[in-house]
Design brief:
With about 120 residues, the chain is mainly beta. The chain has one domain (about 5-124). Helices cover about 15% and strands about 35% of the residues. The protein is built from two helices and seven strands; from the N terminus they run H-H-E-E-E-E-E-E-E. The protein has helices at about 5-15, 20-25; strands at about 35-40, 45-50, 65, 70, 80-85, 90-95, 110-115. Strands 1, 2, 3, 4, 5, 6 and 7 form a seven-stranded antiparallel sheet that branches. A hairpin with a 2-residue loop joins strand 1 and strand 2.
Amino acid sequence: MQGLSELERAVLDKLLEGDHPQLAALRGQLDKLQVAKREVTGSGFFCDLDAPAPPPVLAGATFMLDDVEADLDGLTKGASFVLVIKKGRMTLLECLTRDEAWPATVGTFALRYVTTPRDLDALG
């Protein structure tokens, strides 16, 4: 098991911001969240996540959060992210560039929402 990188933690923090009860419950998993497997691809990365048991508010909840983008050093078109939640647990964090190679190292980055205000209808 591995810990989260600085970019991964920042992306998760951004994805889980907000007053919705399910987002608050997911934030409660962050301190115990581990990376079971990290795979860097030519155009991003995948992290298989190992999350603690979900609280009752998340029981059976399955959805995705995908409204965060990033400007990163070494990328001209930026990157986008997808967090998959299955049965109340964060299971996968995916990063995708837009037709660019993933940089050898991640320097500075800035995160933003795709739209503001956020559309959290998928959370129910």
